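Q: For a teaching handout, I want to show students what a protein-ligand complex looks like in token form. Below are the inputs, and the small molecule is S-adenosylmethionine. Please produce the holo structure.
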Amino acid sequence: MSTPLPPDAAAHLADSYPHNHNYRIRSGKLKPSWQLWTRSRRIRKHYTPGGTSLLDLSSCKGFFLFDAILRIGMQRVRGIDVHGPDVDASRAAMEHLGVADKVRIDQLHLHQVAAEVQAGITAPFDTALLINTYHYLFFGSRREEHHYESHAEIFECLAALTSKGGRLIFSNRVEVALCPKHIQERAKEMGRASRYDEVQIRSAIDPFFQIEPRGKLGKIPLWILHRR
Ligand SMILES: C[S@@+](CC[C@H](N)C(=O)[O-])C[C@H]1O[C@@H](n2cnc3c(N)ncnc32)[C@H](O)[C@@H]1O
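A: Here is the structure, written as tokens, with S-adenosylmethionine included.
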């Protein structure tokens, strides 16, 4: 008998920000919204071929974690997010789906999980996802003020987390003028707007990953980053 999904968790998964990550669970099956279904089809096909482990660095309500286990058969899946309510609701979904032996979800920052790998506590992952979150890492957000000092610092952590020969699936606006308005305002207040553009982001990526642009996810660039 599966652990019941508490109604507040079910409501959070089905209808909360961001709306393109809303889904329901019916009889142990994931029922994504149309937007999430479309996005997940595009993202999933770029996972490292034959890979058995996945790390989602902004796992939000957890859909990509559970999809990796239930649809693809991955064996080791990890999610981190800075937002407590998302972590709580996705953990409730994990218990309900009966996948707690393969999934771990924590309220952590990127550098904290990278430190686990550098200390040998956690193995790197075949596929890592960083979807619609990069500008928050660089500028912080309303949810979480914490931010990184440089693009290089972020990609050094991302490289530590991705196995050699593995992939980081990256989708984000790479020009500050195209980021959400509140991010543009933060960028100006912080005096960092001129430090966020495609050339600077690519040059921080280059020592660690080979970039393969794959068009757009909706209106947002999608790059497959192959770990060198
Ligand atoms: C637009 S959502 C994307 C969620 C998910 N990756 C997806 O594509 O559906 C942005 C995510 O970034 C997280 N986030 C917000 N501020 C952050 C920060 N300063 N540092 C790290 N993550 C942050 C949020 O909690 C949220 O899960």
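A: Two things your students might notice: The longest strand covers residues 162-171. The CA atoms of residues 9 and 89 lie 5 Å apart.
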